[in-house]
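Severity: low
Component: inverse-folding endpoint
Summary: output formatting inconsistent between runs
Steps to reproduce: submit the following structure tokens with default settings.
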């Protein structure tokens, strides 16, 4: 259902835009593009300057949204960092919508600042709540005290909006009252969301109302003088337009916002209103976005030209996280500008002057190639968001071509300046686009496909509006003249369609390659052996299974072992090696995952290392608990071990013996061990697993001493022993036994614990009990509830509760183990990928096994 909605929402947005475009064409049926251009020239520079000043003031007020949200979730961050995250987030959101633009940009900014996915979700919901409270309050006041009249053409059953105003005021008042009296949290996406306190709620009201009032003023000062509406009345119209934008999910509200303003604004000169709306789009939408890109580009340039002190390092990392997305949006808008410029009449005076210096074929070719480059740039923008090296080269060349063609086709210096800014920012950010891959092999999300459709439809709509009075005939296709704007528009439309068709066919024929990861070399395995031998935790021996790849630190004293399952790059446990190497190694691993557009996932990390993963912007999820028995003073005396002592004594009297076989003497035992393993698998109806669980492999088992139980010299049970040189802990990895003999597993563990004590080890590790120790309170997150349910009632497919109960007989000390991952909406897929990786079926000619825990 969620996937269906993600696909239907962009489709609905495109359909809504098409409807709005049709209605706009009807509203403007008596106007021509030259009327709009005259309206643009008629707006006084003072009005434009005043609108720009109000825009700057408005974006300063918008910082209050983020500050209040952070205060509500109990986080305090430096004001400059919050201001930057707010500015870039709102600039992206206003141009491309919250889902496609604002949320991803904010997520990247606040992840670098240390917020978890849950906190960012709470912050995002708080931002939305603040906006709606402002809409209810400001709209209610405007509709009640100075309501505008509804145009008779709409034929609605009511003539004013004062009744709606009272309803909106009631909602705003109810929210304020709820913050006083309602203390229970709400459940949103499996997380607890609490209402803010009355103080924060009052501040929300003030900030949101100020935001809406100033934003409406930014457009109001640009409107023509003959508008027959007071500012409070126009504020109500502006609010309805803003609500329509949010509800329709059309990126930037393109078409929808303009339609509502044109329909409800009482003005006889709608062409002047359209001109005001165009200038408002540039001032309020485009200028902030390009200002953010210039600031980020400057940050990048300074970072490369001079030493970055530690205080500025965080700003550099925020820039690294946010810049590719914003540059992708800027490149997309640059492509839109190139299309719109090619689909509107050229300025006559410029053409008259240009034809004295430029031959007609050059102008025609420049116009056609400029539109083709614009369409290609729309497609390339997706690759920039994915940080593709090839997309950077393509965008750079297309922007350069766009600058040249803009000047040659009609001296369109305005478009050339805008394209130059984007090109300069791209050149300054070269190092941020490092992924290898082909753009045609990358996935275009439904949101991006929707944006592409909106851009193309917008350009075509504007072209047909500009030349609506032209008599379209077949001869137009072959009409070449300096003032032949309509024929050039038709030919450019064919070029745009050709670009889209070629790209689509290319994608259908191309085959996406997987991540290029090579098996470890002998030299790398030697380094792995050396590091594992000195590792304090015996789980590091999973590196020897042969089913993992390795990422080493610069000095090769530490490594991360991992495997790739679909988009999840799953590392087994914490890095292995000196702890001081971990932060940079984890960051290096994140960059590797990022290189292939993968998700960095760390499976079964220890609690003492959680801050490192939080610093990387990852979210933590408790998987279960790891049990370790302190063996220095271990004894099976006492009433608690009565049954275990009885089992041991009974088996010893029956002739069962415990023995440790050194690793150099295990080769001759392998046939019997395989026989036991195969019998155990058959009796348990179990399939072999891997990655975090050992499997039966002779080459792997020869690395370890083997503990065996014999009956009359015949081996009936075995387990390979994991032990490290510092003798910090010992454990077993693969345990198989003849299940027809009762008590064999108890007997083996008792002997292993006593052996570990005799050898001087500190701990004996019993491994993890999955899903245990996870809180299942009434208001716990959704994962906790599911995990608790599976833990208690999941015996049908795995006895999780029985596993912990069995291990508890030996009195282990339990410590939690976590999954560190991007979290959020990616979490269900990550969990599915981890499960698939561990439970992957092994071929019968390559038998591999299963760990007991």
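Observed output (run 2 of 3):
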């Amino acid at each position: 259902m969620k996937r269906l909605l993600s696909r239907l929402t962009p489709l609905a947005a495109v359909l809504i835009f098409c409807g709005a475009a049709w209605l706009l064409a009807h509203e403007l049926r008596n106007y021509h593009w030259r009327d709009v251009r005259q309206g643009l020239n008629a707006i006084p520079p003072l009005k434009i300057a005043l609108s720009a000043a109000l825009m700057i003031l408005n974006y300063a007020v918008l910082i209050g949204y983020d500050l209040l949200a952070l205060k509500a979730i109990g986080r305090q961050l430096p004001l400059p960092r919050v201001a930057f995250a707010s500015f870039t987030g709102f600039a992206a959101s206003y141009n491309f919508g919250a889902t496609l633009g604002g949320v991803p940009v904010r997520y990247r900014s606040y992840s670098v600042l240390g917020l978890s996915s849950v906190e960012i979700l709470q912050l995002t919901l708080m931002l939305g709540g603040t906006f709606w409270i402002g809409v209810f309050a400001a709209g209610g006041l405007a509709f009640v005290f100075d309501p505008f009249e509804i145009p008779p053409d709409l034929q609605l059953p009511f003539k004013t909006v004062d009744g709606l105003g009272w309803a909106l005021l009631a909602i705003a008042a109810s929210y304020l009252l709820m913050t006083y009296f309602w203390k229970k949290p709400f459940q949103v996406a499996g997380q607890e969301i609490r209402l803010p306190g009355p103080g924060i709620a009052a501040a929300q009201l003030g900030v949101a109302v100020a935001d809406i009032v100033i934003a409406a003023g930014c457009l109001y000062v640009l409107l023509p003088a003959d508008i027959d509406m007071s500012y409070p009345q126009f504020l109500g119209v502006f609010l309805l337009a803003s609500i329509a934008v949010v509800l329709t999910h059309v990126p930037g509200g393109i078409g929808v916002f303009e339609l509502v303003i044109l329909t409800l604004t009482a003005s006889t000169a709608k062409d002047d209103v359209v001109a005001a709306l165009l200038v408002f789009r540039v001032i309020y939408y485009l200028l902030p976005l390009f200002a953010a890109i210039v600031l980020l580009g400057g940050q990048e340039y300074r970072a490369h030209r001079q030493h970055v002190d530690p205080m500025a390092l965080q700003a550099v990392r925020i820039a690294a996280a946010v810049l590719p997305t914003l540059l992708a949006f800027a490149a997309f808008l640059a492509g839109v500008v190139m299309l719109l410029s090619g689909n509107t009449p050229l300025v006559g005076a410029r053409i008259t002057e240009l034809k004295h210096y430029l031959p007609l074929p050059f102008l025609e070719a420049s116009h056609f190639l400029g539109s083709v480059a614009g369409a290609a740039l729309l497609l390339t923008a997706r690759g920039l968001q994915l940080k593709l090296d090839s997309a950077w080269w393509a965008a750079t060349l297309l922007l350069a071509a766009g600058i040249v063609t803009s000047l040659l086709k009609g001296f369109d210096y305005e478009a050339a300046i805008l394209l130059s800014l984007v090109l300069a920012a791209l050149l300054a950010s070269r190092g941020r686009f490092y992924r290898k891959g082909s753009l045609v092999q990358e996935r275009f999300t439904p949101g991006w496909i929707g944006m592409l459709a909106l851009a193309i439809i917008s350009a075509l709509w504007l072209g047909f509006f500009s030349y609506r009075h032209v008599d379209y005939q077949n001869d137009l296709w072959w009409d070449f003249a300096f003032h032949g704007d309509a024929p050039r528009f038709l030919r450019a439309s064919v070029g745009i369609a050709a670009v889209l068709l070629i790209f689509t066919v290319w994608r259908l024929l191309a085959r996406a390659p997987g991540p290029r990861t090579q098996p470890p070399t002998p030299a790398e395995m030697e380094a792995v052996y050396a590091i594992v031998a000195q590792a304090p935790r015996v789980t590091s021996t999973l590196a020897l299974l042969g089913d993992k790849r390795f990422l080493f630190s610069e000095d090769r004293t530490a490594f991360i072992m991992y495997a790739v399952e679909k988009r999840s790059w799953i590392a087994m446990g914490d890095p292995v090696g000196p702890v001081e190497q971990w932060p940079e190694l984890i960051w290096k691993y994140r960059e590797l995952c990022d290189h292939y557009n993968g998700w960095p996932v760390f499976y079964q990390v220890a609690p003492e290392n959680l801050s490192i993963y939080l610093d990387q912007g990852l979210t933590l999820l408790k998987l279960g608990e790891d049990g370790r028995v302190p063996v220095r003073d271990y004894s099976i005396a006492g009433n608690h071990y009565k049954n275990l002592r009885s089992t041991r004594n009974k088996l010893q009297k029956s002739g069962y013996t415990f023995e440790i076989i050194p690793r150099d003497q295990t080769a001759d035992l392998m046939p019997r061990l395989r026989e036991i393993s195969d019998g155990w698998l058959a009796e348990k109806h179990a399939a072999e697993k891997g990655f975090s669980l050992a499997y039966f492999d002779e080459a792997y088992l020869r690395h370890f001493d083997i503990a065996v139980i014999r009956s009359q010299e015949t081996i009936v049970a075995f387990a390979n022993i994991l032990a490290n040189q510092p003798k910090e802990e010992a454990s077993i990895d693969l345990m198989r036994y003849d299940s027809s003999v009762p008590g064999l597993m108890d007997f083996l563990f008792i002997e292993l614990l006593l052996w570990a004590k005799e050898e001087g080890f500190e701990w004996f590790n019993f491994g993890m009990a999955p899903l245990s120790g996870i809180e299942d309170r009434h208001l716990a997150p959704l994962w906790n509830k599911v995990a608790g349910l599976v833990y208690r009632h999941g015996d049908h497919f795995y006895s999780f509760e029985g596993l912990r109960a069995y291990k508890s007989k030996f009195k282990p000390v339990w410590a939690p183990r976590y999954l560190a991952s991007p979290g959020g909406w990616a979490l269900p897929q990550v969990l599915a990928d981890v499960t698939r990786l561990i439970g992957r079926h092994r071929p019968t000619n390559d038998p591999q096994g299963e760990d007991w825990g």
